[in-house]
Design a protein that fits this description.
This protein has 122 residues and is of the alpha+beta class. It has helices spanning 20-30, 101-108, and strands at 5-8, 14-19, 38-41, 46-51, 65-67, 73-76, 87-90. The strands form 2 sheets. It has a 5-stranded antiparallel sheet. A two-stranded antiparallel ribbon has the order 1-6. A hairpin with a 4-residue loop joins β3 (38-41) and β4.
Length: 122
Amino acid sequence: MEALAPIASGRNWLAVEARLLDTMYAVNRIGTERLGPVLADPGVERAWWLIAPDAAEDLADIRQVRVRPEGWPLHCPPTGWYQCGRLWIHRPDGSGQLNDPTLIAAALGPGGGHRLPSEEPR
């Protein structure tokens, strides 16, 4: 029987919810080498970025995201599996690396200010 594990946010991380399309755009702009865990549910067009618990304020002005509070359960499939409609766009790897809220804000915020090196003005 397939089931998702309800893992409560809080001491180690918070979940930042965004539209899946916005998330895919941001993932491409940020680059996989700088990503932490990102979970997606294409059926509901949502994704969740994991950030440090003290980083929520960095995303306060970004309308495209919603930081879920401590104790909010994120329903997760096993890493590497597509289960119950959910999959990891970027898997947790055991290193403890989380997403940088500054990069999320730059990629999703007004003007999508984060630029890839190839996009820098010359």
